[in-house]
Design a protein that fits this description.
The structure holds two protein chains of two kinds. By secondary structure, chain A is mainly beta. Helices cover 0% and strands 54% of the residues of chain A. In chain A, strands 2, 4, 5, 9, 10 and 11 form a six-stranded mixed β-sheet that branches. A five-stranded antiparallel β-sheet of chain A has the order 1-3-8-7-6, with no helix packed on it. In chain B, strands 2, 4, 5, 6, 9, 10 and 11 form a seven-stranded mixed β-sheet that branches. A four-stranded antiparallel β-sheet of chain B has the order 1-3-8-7, with no helix packed on it. The chains are: A mainly beta, B mainly beta.
Amino acid sequence: GQQLNQSPQSMFIQEGEDVSMNCTSSSIFNTWLWYKQDPGEGPVLLIALYKAGELTSNGRLTAQFGITRKDSFLNISASIPSDVGIYFCAGQLSGGYQKVTFGTGTKLQVIP
Amino acid sequence: DADVTQTPRNRITKTGKRIMLECSQTKGHDRMYWYRQDPGLGLRLIYYSFDVKDINKGEISDGYSVSRQAQAKFSLSLESAIPNQTALYFCASGTSGTGELFFGEGSRLTVL
């Protein structure tokens, strides 16, 4: 089956720093998504990408759909304490009968 | 009220017991999913359903079964729980054609 590998697995950063994380796949996806899980909660969608090469922003977050369709990255600018959580990438193949596969997650800790 | 509701939120049980985790959603979505979360392993897909008459195995379906009682309800059963099924379980719902999922708050299961 498809595997999504995220890196880094975890990171500690100072408040105000920029953050970058990425996700790679052994398979081609037609949709890439990024979710965030706050402690004690379920994941929540941050950004969805539907076209290779697409660059999309949501506030301080920016994500890109890799040209090869096998990777994606997420950047967070000027981190704040509430950015703490686990960030998951997810991919979906094209067609109406495709499941959503999640990555292993990147745990982010922000030091005030 | 939450769009995706899971019950119970926490459960401690013994090896060999039958356990059912229930999920209901109010978003009118046709697709529902069950994922399992373990530290460092991300979200792994157990079962998914694209409509009431459609049930599909995910990557880790052994030891689990599901029932889609209605469009809004999707339950996960462990027929004979074992300790390595101790994990955080998430139900999610979504619409056809996108990977955008809405998650419940999770059900933490401990098998002694």
